[in-house]
Specification:
Blueprint lengths: L7 H5 L20 H25 L4 E11 L6 E11 L3 E6 L6 E5 L2 E5 L7 E6 L11 H6 L2 H4 E11 L2 E10 L9 E7 L5 E7 L5 E11 L17 E4 L3
Parallel strand pairs: 6-12
Antiparallel strand pairs: 1-2, 1-11, 2-3, 3-4, 4-5, 5-6, 7-8, 8-9, 9-10, 10-11
Length: about 240
């Protein structure tokens, strides 16, 4: 999820998310032995949840899902909400469609990512080349958090929560120094039963917060092979942009 720098909801789906400024108290805090023990136990639960999510995602080859996304600008308080659906075949193929903008879509065909948003930038499509492995980078939503998470992130527990009627464990991921993952922190809500990520919030360096809730997820589901093909419409200009 580098950034594709596409506008509006498409850019939001590339996971450059952010949430506001947290001001910590300046007074020193003395931790008791009991509170330290509780924190250790809590983080152990967070690590188990992450390991469970990694195991659940590893055998997945295809995904069909629908989502709700909310963007919040902490400086203005402005919010934007959109819904949509996506199909994915790993690695390198992804098709995202938005419900509130007819024709707007993001397609990764295994060689390139196409961002076509006629509702906001008519007359052009952005194309970004994938690497030799067909890696979709930040467009592969779940892999962003589950590719060697113990190596890439500092992991802490946030607690339990119910998301869409499912019991989840919320876990905070902060990229370790030098990782350059495009966001300063992320929170993921991991299903306690099947290990799937049911919701995530990403905070980027600009202060934008994006929360994506997966309203339905089907692993290894039948998908439409034609969904990953993009044909440039007549009269539309192709703009090359790196990932």
């Amino acid at each position: 999820m580098g950034s594709l720098h596409a506008p509006r909801h498409a850019r939001s789906f590339t996971l450059l998310l952010a949430a506001g400024i947290v001001v910590a108290p300046t007074l020193p805090v003395r931790l008791s032995a009991q509170s330290t023990s509780t924190a250790t136990t809590s983080n152990a639960a967070a690590l188990r949840a992450v390991d469970r999510a990694v195991a659940a995602w590893k055998p997945v080859k295809t995904v069909r899902a629908s989502f709700e996304q909310t963007l919040v600008n902490p400086l203005t308080g402005a919010q934007m909400r959109t819904t949509g659906s996506y199909q994915q075949r790993r690695p390198g193929q992804l098709a995202v469609r938005f419900d509130d903008a007819a024709g707007d879509r993001i397609i990764a065909d295994g060689k390139s990512v196409w961002i076509y948003l006629p509702s906001s930038i008519p007359g052009q499509v952005i194309r970004s080349r994938l690497d030799a492995n067909g890696t979709t980078g930040t467009l592969d939503v779940t892999a962003q958090f589950l590719d060697a998470p113990r190596t890439r992130y500092d992991i802490t527990d946030v607690g339990n929560a119910t998301i869409s009627g499912r019991a989840t464990r919320a876990v905070r991921l902060v990229p370790k120094p030098g990782r350059g993952l495009g966001f300063v922190k992320a929170t993921v809500w991991i299903d306690e039963r099947d290990g799937l990520i049911r919701q995530f919030e990403v905070v980027d360096q600009s202060g934008l917060s994006r929360t994506v809730r997966l309203t339905s997820v089907a692993r290894n589901a039948a998908i439409d092979p034609g969904a990953f093909r993009f044909e440039v419409p007549a009269g539309v200009r192709v703009v090359e942009r790196s990932l």
